[in-house]
Amino acid sequence: MAESSNSELGQDKIPIEEDGPISIGSSSEDCGGEATEAMGKKRKKRKRENKTEGSLLQDPLVVFGSDIMMKILRHLDACSVALSLLVSRGWHGVASSDRLWASKCEELWFGKAHIARSSQVRGLSKLAAYSISVMDGKRTRIMKEDLCDHVWEFHFNEVAPEYWRNLDPYWKGTGPPMRRYFHPDGSLTADPGDEVWGGHESSYSVVTSFVGEGQIREHYVRINSWSRMSVSRKENWSWEMSNNLSCYTSIPDARKEGGTGPLFPFSCFPLIYMFKFV
Length: 278
Description:
Layout: H1 2-12, H2 28-56, H3 60-64, H4 66-74, H5 78-83, H6 89-95, H7 98-109, H8 126-137, H9 144-149, E1 151-156, H10 162-166, H11 169-172, E2 178-182, E3 188-190, E4 204-211, E5 215-223, E6 229-233, E7 239-242, E8 246-250
Antiparallel strand pairs: 1-2, 1-8, 2-3, 4-5, 5-6, 6-7, 7-8
């Protein structure tokens, strides 16, 4: 009986391997270790993300320095550079640099017929020169200085009498267009030998009337007693004056030293206009 009992108990014994400990499932200590390790990884990941986010939120001027920021700003359009003036004093110092705006001015002036005299004042910053140039380019009120500073091409329109068109090189194709010259004393002249001119005296006047708070009601140029000439400005900043019979167009003179047109005081062009480029 004893042997039988021992054999039965022997069958219920758990075999012990000599090469290692007993392994039955996972203990609570193992679960706790894995959880702790997972929490540690999450904390490290969060720290890395916070560090990355902090780097992204840093001021680019502080991160890159003024020289690299200058190179970056050179690739932006003028309006974007102007807006960067508002970021901080440091940004304003870089974004208002003459080195930066000198190239912007060259880009703006390229292909333009006329350069505003007000933008060529000695000692004026390039930022101010750009702002003034843009605003003057939008000006549609012609002044006596504009008339006198430029040489003007003249030709008759198609509805003009045939007699006059037959004398006009523009229609005959026999030579360059006729030219006209406006003078500060109010007189108007032509080149010698101009068949249309005929040597008679001629005068002009600029007429401008206003309504309300400086809003222009009428604006035109009159030569002698002929029909008034409406005034318009082209995309290249040249001027055009025309009526039903004839047309005057200013000849490009962008290389004229000191610029052309009226000399407006700088106070007429506050830098807030920088944000009206588009």
